[in-house]
Amino acid sequence: QVQLVESGGGLVQPGGSLRLSCAASGSIFSINAMDWYRQAPGKERELVAHITSGGRTNYADSVKGRFTISRDNAKNTVYLQMNSLKPEDTAVYYCRIVGAVVGGGLDVWGQGTQVTVSS
Asked: Among 79, 98, 104, which Cα is nearest to 23's?
């Protein structure tokens, strides 16, 4: 069984920074995509950032230039560096990995970590 453990959320003032981490453990054969999503109260979950196994990245327009996604393949870990945070970035952030385990596919979500941007 594969599990994701997220960390790094918290309360930060506008203009501040946070770094989220998401570590995968278990019988993983390969990881293709690693993503960060977020869901604010009363809103649908949205894709924030995406990174492929080759390191190619995509970002939501609302975070381009402020957020950076990266991954450490040796540690099966994905990171989200968030700079110049705004109150509208307040949400629960979820990581997701897509790949393969022995004998099948892999598509698993983290438990979520709260990010609150407020003065």
From this structure: 79
